[in-house]
Specification:
Mean pLDDT: 96
Low-confidence stretches: none
Bound molecules: 4-amino-1,4-dioxobutan-2-aminium adenosine-5'-monophosphate, magnesium ion
CATH architecture of the largest domain: 2-Layer Sandwich
Distance between the termini: 36 Å
CATH topology of the largest domain: BirA Bifunctional Protein, domain 2
Largest sheet: 8 strands, mixed
Shape: elongated
Number of domains: 2
Strand content: 15-25%
Oligomer: single chain
Structural class: alpha+beta
Radius of gyration: 27 Å
Amino acid sequence: MKRIKIKELLVSGELGSEILVKGWVRTKRGNKNIVFIALNDGSTILNIQVVAETSLFDENLLRDITTGACIAVTGKLVESQGQGQNIEISATSIELYGKSDAETYPLQKKGHSMEFLRENAHLRFRTNTFGAVFRIRHSMAFAIHKYFNDKGFFYLHTPIITASDAEGAGEMFHVTTFDINGAPRGEDGSVDFKSDFFGRQTNLTVSGQLEGELGAMALGDIYTFGPTFRAENSNTPRHLAEFWMIEPEMAFYDLTDNMDLAEDFVKYLIRYALENCKNDLEFLNNMIDKNLLDRLRFVVENDFVRIPYTQAVEILTASDKKWEYPVGWGRDLQAEHERFLVEEHFKRPVILTDYPREIKAFYMKQNDDGKTVRAMDVLFPGIGEIIGGSQREESLEKLLSRMREMKIPEHDLWWYLDTRRFGTAPHSGFGLGFERLILFVTGMSNIRDVIPFPRTPKNAEF
Ligand code: 4AD
Ligand code: MG
């Protein structure tokens, strides 16, 4: 007999039919005559109840069916007599695939802390919460590809190993085959990378943007979706050293087009989750965050506020809040400032534009005021910055002069500069932090709980 997944069974199972299900035991209860097993196979947050009459089964088998054990059940689909489910399986045979010792199984009991589950990241998929989070994470990845494909964007695979530091922040993990104890050195004592694997110094990418721009300058609209790596020592609930980023890059888009796309894109993703992840979202709404569904609907239904950085600084200065970090024109905004604007002042997502050039990357288009650049950051409730992007500087002269000011070596980026030499065009793009999106959509509060195996300072177990 062919196995049926529980998700499908709950939708289209026919009463009275013989079926085969396979999964992990969530709970077992009962008495000497009858045993009730809640079985979950991961296809949905919902369990199927298996009813076994003890007289039909071997006593040892039933004893070994404990929380966490894996079993295959053949039986008849019947109407449920009990509360909490409409259908259940009246078991005729049970095969035990794998026992799970009740004394040592870490998830034997319910109600573990998030910290405990993080330390047991190899097993936390088996909890309702993490099952829901990772099914939603999958749905969001799928929806991202669907959104861009439907709009005629091309998925471009940009390299993971690169020689450039796109953001210029110097937060890179180096890639080398040198023995760290004995890298060859040149006459001046510095490491000589000529004999290293790539013949030069390389690192894990912090962003696919620069290569993405090369694609956009021929294919028109592209997007990347891949892992990015930052060696910033930020131990916060919103930073990972390895995170996934979606970076669309569009020829002929100005900053307004860019903002329109960003707003439409995140609203589409949230709407997709509301329509396609109902059971999981309802569970998270009940168990993790009672305002989750309201907040998701609110974001889909309301326009984002769009204001320049300068105006945001005025609002922050005028408020009588006590800030941990000082506010002032020219200073970067901290999470506390971003969250004040979104959660207390405007009470909706905010897009800030036209930041001071000193606090933004070299590639952003310079405004005529000589002070600001055509940057945009999308700020979300509970998260702060979820998207960072800009219109790009398309003028070779302006780009070069900014790179010289910032001491970014031209000879390393000759290929990037070639796009401005040959057929340059106005263009724009942005980066959405995938895990920050998942934080928002699931209502989870720590970014370590929305990626299967988080990489953070001093933590790379599993
Ligand atoms: O603002 P960022 O640094 O922008 C870029 O990397 C640009 N190259 C994007 C572009 O224009 N193509 O990063 C973009 C987003 C942030 O808004 C944030 O959501 C996320 O990436 N992000 C992180 N997420 C988790 N952990 C970190 N350490 C992150 N750093 C950035
Ligand atoms: Mg940013």
